[in-house]
Amino acid sequence: MFKSIAVKLTSFFVISILIFSALFIGIFTIIFNNYAVDYYKIELNKKATAIAETFSPYLDKTMSKEKSGLGSFMKYLNQMEAIDIWIFDSNQSLFTIGNSNNSKHLNHFEYSDLPDNADEFIKQIFQNELAYSESFNQQSNILTIAKPIFNQENELVGAVLLQAPVSLNNGLFYTGLIILLGSMGLALLVSIILSILLSKSFTRPLKIINNNTLLLKQGQYEHTIAIKNKDEIGELATSINDLATKLAEAEVKSKKEDIARKEFIASISHELRTPLTVIRGLLEAINDQVIITPEEITESHNQILAETVLMQRLVTDLLELSRLQNANFSIANEPVDVLELLNDISRSSTALAAKKNIKLNIEIQIDRLIINGDYDRIRQMLIIIIDNAIKYSYNNSEIDIVLLNDKISIQDYGIGIDSEQISHIFDKFFILENDQKSGTGLGLAIAKEIAERHNFKIDVKSKLNKGTTFDIYF
């Protein structure tokens, strides 16, 4: 269960929210404490200012015995909760002390009665170095403020020192913290519910993809993933659909290749069996002395030789075709002058055409044409096509070879090819039904492989008893 992505995502969300909440509470506590300290400073400063203004006329009477009203004000000071007050005259003598628990006034006291570091504040104020001073003890949460006392002539006549504890853990803080924790708890609950729903919505397409992947594993390539998201998951679904399509195509291709391989082996066996049967029959007839006359023996030898030549051609063509079909078999890729190539082919094919009194008409309609490829392979391809044109042409006919900007056209005026057979002429071991000529049936298959290795296109048009045209597009 804990391996589920949905559970992991939900856990990540919850952990992130808890970390955020802890940080938020910490920041809230720091900000609230700082605010509380600042608030106490402002309030204590107001009290110090009020006390300084009140004591200013009393301290300006050069310590007169008339202290009317001072006692009442000291009673008011006694009512200030948890605030310690020290008042000094112009001689820096401690004049009075007042707090909520104790009140001593109209007497003189010693500096030893002051809190820590307070004497330094007072000395700096009377030396006109400070107009206002404060300090806060972080460990004891004690705030101390000192202010000078001036008379109406703006003369320094005394100082007031106030010290009060700062309550950081008061009810207001706890109330705010409880509200904050409650809000965060509610937010956490809502977030958990939303994270579960969002996690499931996120993992749902992944489960669909996983199920379809299992189907692909079982060879069921027809199933597709119906996810159209415009995100990474949608791209993954599209990629898997493309993979399923390619696997299906590869399976079909593999089956076709397997069938073709079996047919190929069967065809080879058949093609080799025929000449071997003839050779064995003739040899057995000679061995059993069925054939005894010198003329019959000579004829048998000639027949055996012809059959062995046919088998040799068959094996050679098979090896040639196998090499061309191998993607690792490299062919040259260099500039080829097509005009020079046609002149070379014309010289080679003229002798074969002359045996049937066939005229080769070569027409060149461009000044020059250079293509990239393997000169010997392109020559082999064109000779195969021209040899077939000569083979299936009538005696005393013509063959037109025309060179244009983008193609070579080879047209004969022979027996032609039936429309049902024309789509099979490039198949291995295919021989026309009315063909009484010798051959392996591999020539045009080799020509097609050479064309495909050069990215050429061969287009064939034919009519029975009218002739055939091969167009080779570069």
From TrEMBL:
Coiled coil ranges: none
GO terms assigned for molecular function: ATP binding; phosphorelay sensor kinase activity
Compartment(s) of residence: Cell membrane
Residues that span the membrane, as ranges: 12-32, 172-198
SUPFAM superfamilies listed in its UniProt record: ATPase domain of HSP90 chaperone/DNA topoisomerase II/histidine kinase, HAMP domain-like, Homodimeric domain of signal transducing histidine kinase
Membrane topology: Multi-pass membrane protein
Protein name as it appears in the record: histidine kinase
Cleaved signal peptide residues: none
Entry EC no(s): 2.7.13.3
Catalytic reaction equation(s): ATP + protein L-histidine = ADP + protein N-phospho-L-histidine
Keywords for the protein's UniProt record, in alphabetical order: ATP-binding, Cell membrane, Kinase, Membrane, Nucleotide-binding, Phosphoprotein, Transferase, Transmembrane, Transmembrane helix, Two-component regulatory system
GO cellular component, one term: plasma membrane
Record has Cytoplasm as a keyword: no
Domain spans labelled HAMP: 200-252
Native source organism of the sequence: Culicoidibacter larvae
Domain Histidine kinase: 267-474
